[in-house]
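Try this one yourself first.
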């Protein structure tokens, strides 16, 4: 007797569903019910001797449904709260990150086309496209998780997909304190700065938790304020703010038209009467517009950027501004120093943990340099037998110099 494998059953049922049903305008629950019927129908037509129990039928329903409307074989990984990142290097190589460590899992897409179908579903849901002419795209899932896609001919070993998952329940400052990512003293200090409308810039390496920490800090923004958020791919979830305007950049279409860059959105946001502007991440010439917005009455604004240290971030900002306008270096540094109040640096340690490792005040511009006042620094005391980093974020003993905003707003 020729007994169909689960994989073959999934393929056959999927083809049958596509042939028999128009699914685009019915609910997920209705699709689920139809698939149960179709599983029984296809199995009955194929062989009367193949008996599937309720559990097996449910697995087939999930497999077919995920392949058509969800994230295919990745759906169980996305539902697993212990997994923080999913990395796909072609159809045969899938890696996950748990507790800060990466591991390969025994799971694969049956074909490159199956992986490509899933990619097209992801990008089409947010009206973006990716193809050989435009092989790189940033997207997001419905829960806010970040997705990066790279296709052939750039990706040499098949489509590359990286999914940075967002927790269903957003992290809070209390949780970060519990995890040892920040101390109560530093957290209380930052809460006061956010409420007093200091301009904050969060920097760190890839995967250090910049966006997560930006979300955490946003919980300290008074709920009555009007906030505008600007991102390449919308990830921020400001749960405490009611009056929020969210904007997202748009890539050019296949003809090269219709692109809307971040700098355009920053300029537009100034006409929307924001009290604060939050820019998800600056990477290029939009840095100049962000700094100008911070320096023209939008106190309490925040942004993030990639860098290896606070000083490195200041240098990178200089370079970004130069991309926008050939200004004298003195003028650029003065603009940065007058716009930013506080720099926060996050690190991802070798044990996989993420911690705030520096908080510094931007004092101003003197003798050709931007001067900093280190307020908190992380001191590493060693590691446990299991290799976990031991240390804490400690006050340097320096006092906050610029207290005008605290006196005015608190």
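Now uncover the answer:
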């Amino acid at each position: 007797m020729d007994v169909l494998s689960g994989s073959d059953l999934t393929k056959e049922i999927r083809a049958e569903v596509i042939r028999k049903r128009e699914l685009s305008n019915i609910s997920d629950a209705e699709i689920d019910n139809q698939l149960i019927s179709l599983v029984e129908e296809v199995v009955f037509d194929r062989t009367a001797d193949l008996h599937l129990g309720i559990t097996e039928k449910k697995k087939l329903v999930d497999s077919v449904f995920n392949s058509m409307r969800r994230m295919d074989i990745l759906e169980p990984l996305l539902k697993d709260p212990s997994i923080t990142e999913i990395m796909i290097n072609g159809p045969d190589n899938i890696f996950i990150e748990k507790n800060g460590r990466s591991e390969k899992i025994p799971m694969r897409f049956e074909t490159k086309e199956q992986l490509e179908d899933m990619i097209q579903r992801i990008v089409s849901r947010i009206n973006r496209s990716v193809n050989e002419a435009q092989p790189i795209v940033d997207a997001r899932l419905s829960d806010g998780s970040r997705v990066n896609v790279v296709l052939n001919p750039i990706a040499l070993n098949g489509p590359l997909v990286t999914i940075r998952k967002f927790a269903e329940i957003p992290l809070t400052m209390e949780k970060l304190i519990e995890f040892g990512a920040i101390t109560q003293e530093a957290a209380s200090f930052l809460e006061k700065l956010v409420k007093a409308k200091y301009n904050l810039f969060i920097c760190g390496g890839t995967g250090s938790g910049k966006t997560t920490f930006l979300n955490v800090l946003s919980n300290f923004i008074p709920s009555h304020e009007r906030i505008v958020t600007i991102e390449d791919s919308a990830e921020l979830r400001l749960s405490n703010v009611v009056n929020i305007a969210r904007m997202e950049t748009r890539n050019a279409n296949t003809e090269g038209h219709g692109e809307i860059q971040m700098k355009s959105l920053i300029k537009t946001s100034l006409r929307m009467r924001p009290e604060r502007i939050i820019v998800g991440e600056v990477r290029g010439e939009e840095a100049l517009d962000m700094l100008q917005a911070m320096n023209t009455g939008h106190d309490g604004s925040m942004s993030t950027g990639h860098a290896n240290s606070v000083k490195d971030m200041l240098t990178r900002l200089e370079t970004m501004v130069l991309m926008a306008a050939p200004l004298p270096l003195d003028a650029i540094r003065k603009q940065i120093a007058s716009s930013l109040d506080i720099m926060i640096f996050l690190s991802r340690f070798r044990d996989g943990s993420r911690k705030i490792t520096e908080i510094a005040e931007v004092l101003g511009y003197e003798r050709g340099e931007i001067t900093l006042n280190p307020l908190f620094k992380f001191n590493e005391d060693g590691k446990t037998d299991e290799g976990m980093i031991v240390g804490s974020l400690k006050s340097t003993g320096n006092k906050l110099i610029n207290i005008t905003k605290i006196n005015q707003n608190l």
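Discussion: The mean pLDDT is 85. The longest helix spans residues 28-46.
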